[in-house]
């Protein structure tokens, strides 16, 4: 299982209100060597300024940090130490590279997949093993969303069970199970049903990804076969069906070479993952080309 949060994106140009006017886009910014100040002008007509904050108007100022926006006036430019500095974040742009904004806190637990087109289905130009249910090979648009960086771990799922929001009805005897097994706490949870996965997502205040969201997060926009490209699969890139000789799962994130284009781990190998959609063999022939949700 893996969870997503939808609709994470920057604001469009327009009036800044209490946000920062930065390169004609409204957004909260957290910059170094600065303090919090009050509001500047609208995004479509930013004031310019020098190092003298009086050029910006009342309580606005020139940001001079390492990541500053040169010669533009803006409110709430701070390093978190100013007298009126907001804490946390409101959008992904508020966080440093590699982090995303979740519940107003910058986190490395999820990756951002931007809005736009990607190629869904089997790309026969690079894949000689296309199935009929993977056709046609079509460009599909998805809104922006966040995807878990790692598969849901056994310890995370146990937290849900302990909270009374999930149950574990999987195999308790097979040696490859991960639930409540010492040493497998950071392995992906296995032997869970779709209903189990959905209950976990609800408990985590997230949801399962659509099949299209999962596919884009896994392979990117270029129609590659695997998250890492078109190089044949091996234990360098993924935890193979036999556990690469261990006949078991491995800790999530064990195969850094198999990273997806957006930074997701284990999107090939380790365990199979549930999506929100139900399966229909000919769905691609009638699927919407924008944000498909499955049959």
What does this structure look like?
It is a single chain. With 295 residues, the protein is mostly beta strands. The chain is built from 3 helices and 13 strands. Strands 1-13-10 form a 3-stranded antiparallel beta sheet, with helices on one face. Strand 2 and strand 3 form a beta hairpin. The relative contact order is 0.15. About 28% of the residues have low confidence.
Which tags fit this structure?
14% strand, mainly beta, three-stranded antiparallel beta sheet, two-stranded antiparallel sheet, globular, single chain, 295 residues, 9% helix
Summarize the structure.
The chain is mostly beta strands. The chain has helices spanning 154-162, 194-203, 211-219, and strands at 4-6, 20-22, 25-27, 29-30, 61-62, 73-74, 77-78, 100-102, 105-107, 110-113, 116-120, 138-142, 145-148.
Topology (SSEs and partners):
Layout: E1 4-6, E2 20-22, E3 25-27, E4 29-30, E5 61-62, E6 73-74, E7 77-78, E8 100-102, E9 105-107, E10 110-113, E11 116-120, E12 138-142, E13 145-148, H1 154-162, H2 194-203, H3 211-219
Parallel strand pairs: 4-7
Antiparallel strand pairs: 1-13, 2-3, 5-6, 8-9, 10-13, 11-12
């Amino acid at each position: 299982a893996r969870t997503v949060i939808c609709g994470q994106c920057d604001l469009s140009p327009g009036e800044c209100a209490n946000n920062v006017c930065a390169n004609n886009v409204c957004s909260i910014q957290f910059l170094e060597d600065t303090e919090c100040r009050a509001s500047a002008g609208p995004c479509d007509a930013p004031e310019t300024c020098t190092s003298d904050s009086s050029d910006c108007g009342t309580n606005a100022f020139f940001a001079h940090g390492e990541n500053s926006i040169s010669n533009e006036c803006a409110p709430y430019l701070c390093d978190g130490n100013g007298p009126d500095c907001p804490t946390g974040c409101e959008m992904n742009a508020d966080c440093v590279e590699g982090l995303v904004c979740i519940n107003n806190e910058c986190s490395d637990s999820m990756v951002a997949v931007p809005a736009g087109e990607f190629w869904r289905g089997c790309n026969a130009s690079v894949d000689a093993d296309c199935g009929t249910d993977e056709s046609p090979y079509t460009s599909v648009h998805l809104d922006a969303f966040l995807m878990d960086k790692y598969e849901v771990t056994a310890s995370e799922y146990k937290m849900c069970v302990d909270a009374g929001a999930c149950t574990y009805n999987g195999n308790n005897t097979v040696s490859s199970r991960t639930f409540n097994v010492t040493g497998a706490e950071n392995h992906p949870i296995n032997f869970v049903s779709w209903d189990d996965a959905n209950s976990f997502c609800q408990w985590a205040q997230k949801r399962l990804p659509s099949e299209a969201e999962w596919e884009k997060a896994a392979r990117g926009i270029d129609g590659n076969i695997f998250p890492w490209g078109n190089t044949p699969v091996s234990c360098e890139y993924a935890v193979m069906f036999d556990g690469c000789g261990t006949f078991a799962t491995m800790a999530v994130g064990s195969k850094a070479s198999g990273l997806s284009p957006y930074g997701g781990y284990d999107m090939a190998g380790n365990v199979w993952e549930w999506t929100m959609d139900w399966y229909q063999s000919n769905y691609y022939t009638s699927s919407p080309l924008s944000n498909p949700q499955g049959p």
